[in-house]
Hints:
The structure is a homodimer.
Chain A: H1 16-23, H2 27-35, H3 42-55, H4 61-68, E1 73-78, H5 84-99, E2 103-108, H6 113-124, E3 130-134, H7 140-148, E4 153-156, E5 166-169, H8 172-185, E6 190-196, H9 202-216, E7 222-228, H10 234-247, E8 253-256, H11 259-272, E9 281-285, E10 299-302, H12 305-321, E11 330-332, E12 336-338
Parallel strand pairs in A: 1-2, 1-3, 3-4, 4-5, 5-11, 6-7, 6-8, 8-9, 9-10
Antiparallel strand pairs in A: 10-12
Helix pairs in contact in A: 1-2, 1-3, 5-12, 6-7, 8-9, 10-11
Chain A binds a DNA duplex through helix 2 and helix 4.
Amino acid sequence: MEATKRHRRKMQSVTMMDVAERAQVSPSTVSLYLRKPDAVSATASRAIAEAIDALRYVPNLMAGGLAAASSRAVSVIVPSVRNAFFAETVATMQAELGKERLQVMLGHSEYSEREEENLVKMALSWKPAAVVLTGLSHSATTRRLLKDGNVPVLELWELGREPIDMAVGFYHEQVGSTAATHLVQRGRKRLLFLGARLQEDRRATLRADGFLKTARETEGVSAEIVQHPAPANAAIGAMLLAEAIRKYPDIDAVACSNDHIALGVIFECQRIGVQIPERLSVIGFGDLSFSAACNPALTTIRPPGDLIGTEAARLILDRIHESGRAASSVIDTRFTLLQRQSS
Amino acid sequence: MEATKRHRRKMQSVTMMDVAERAQVSPSTVSLYLRKPDAVSATASRAIAEAIDALRYVPNLMAGGLAAASSRAVSVIVPSVRNAFFAETVATMQAELGKERLQVMLGHSEYSEREEENLVKMALSWKPAAVVLTGLSHSATTRRLLKDGNVPVLELWELGREPIDMAVGFYHEQVGSTAATHLVQRGRKRLLFLGARLQEDRRATLRADGFLKTARETEGVSAEIVQHPAPANAAIGAMLLAEAIRKYPDIDAVACSNDHIALGVIFECQRIGVQIPERLSVIGFGDLSFSAACNPALTTIRPPGDLIGTEAARLILDRIHESGRAASSVIDTRFTLLQRQSS
DNA sequence: TGGGCTTATCATAGCGCTACGATTTAAGAA
DNA sequence: TTCTTAAATCGTAGCGCTATGATAAGCCCA
């Protein structure tokens, strides 16, 4: 025994080398086949495919990522996937990115910039193919990390100020404005905005702002706001309506920061005998799964959560494929007003 | 020039080596500090921490994972995060695992075993610290991959047959049985189960089975089922109730496969003037955000989505820490009946 | 004072893959 | 047939880190 080996290591059962050997090609060719199948001849492709199958080869993406200095993971950070809006976008993105074998890494900021910053730091450790954030407000450190990180960055669900890199979403002030205009067109004069958790949900605040601004700029129309710091749900909605009627007995229309609130309003009106829409018009935001089935069916504004996801995925894939490009994109997905019975 | 270097490589700006140099220790010590801070002296720790901070060092987890032959990623595969139940569990798991710097990699099977299999293959390429699946039904290949993969495996949200490795959840037949027993105790005799997408949602089917079995075993009680293949939502719920009343005019209680269906039932009853609970008792499943605020408030069974997430995270962390253990665990989280006005 | 511990630190050999440039082969053109 | 050019394929040096075992430094008690 000549050499006294001191080191030993566990290892992966089947490596690319094994595949190469069986297919009678070099490891480089196997690697090429896996990354760009078109660049490999039909003969080689067949042999490699057979070998992969026979050996049950599973590529090691950590090794690949290390060698390539970038991984096939996309870090997606949302306030919470418990929120149906973001769940829709995350689900759509995962489906689209999964087709190209990109992995979604999920993080929840819980509406905290501090937490978002931690998640971004963690994400960067993975050399992700892209980092996806929600909204346009981030800590200075987050911004710096992302700009220095030399990584495609997407900001979803909000348009307005300058994005770090790319953005897909819509203008929330416009949502509020559209709601106000709609109610006015329906002949309403005493408008009210019902909001929950506005201190944390910047986008809901923008909707409220747009609503109040547009309403107050209209001749002969008044607009007030009633809010609560708790997260939006139907119970809060019911509570808010009760409070609103106490404070402003003559209101004839309410816009809600989302459909959960609106659902609570509908229930509360049933209980206290307020007729919708005769006595009170109601408009929500979200078009959640129950909105069309309410009694009365809820007029609402539908944000395109799925479209945001597909567009985001498309931008990421574009960036990956034509890696040279630096064009920064902003996509306005718009939103849709769905008029139903409640207004 | 002696050597003609042919190779060149881009690289990470700051590596562990840079940190080691600045802190006047070896790279090994830095690595140790990062993985087990307690094993490093206070002096060294301070110097390393300072260096990391000053250089803004970001560890490369791909390199770490490759060297360690396992990553700090946990692959979580759920039918869809659009479903509030799974969203709750995913969110909770991410929060718990994130504390220990584990990344959640998300996949959506869309209730397809074929798709789940693909996702598991992709997941395994990352050498995850654990693989988390939903339910106990998987393709044979999925099972084999996971067993050969030498990876901790968790199956959530369902108990019953033998798990691959560990399982956290509850018995869905028990849920159905509990619902039936409750309605009988409230004096109901003509029971009905309203279900959506039962062909795909195995767990909803188990609830239906448990419900029908228990009801039919009870003296003087009858039970029927009405279902629809579309995904559960309030509109389907309303439709199902209308159909149910047409088919079985004398029913006095309905159990719904989830609260979305129950919400539709409530709305439909309001429209057609059926009094809840006087004429008809209603019980749901899920305790969704609106359930307590309905009119009338909905009696429902609450599955502990958050508990499932925390318990799952705990099991994974336990496995990582005491890596020798092979004890396979099954945790029954139970569920809670919430009696409200609708029954 | 020194032997036997424990504790802290270190040097080094890969982990499995991809990028790079070089080399071989195939296909046309002359 | 030879030369040129394009298409396939190959050889190899790392990517940045961790596991391993070795060494050095403290510490206790005889």
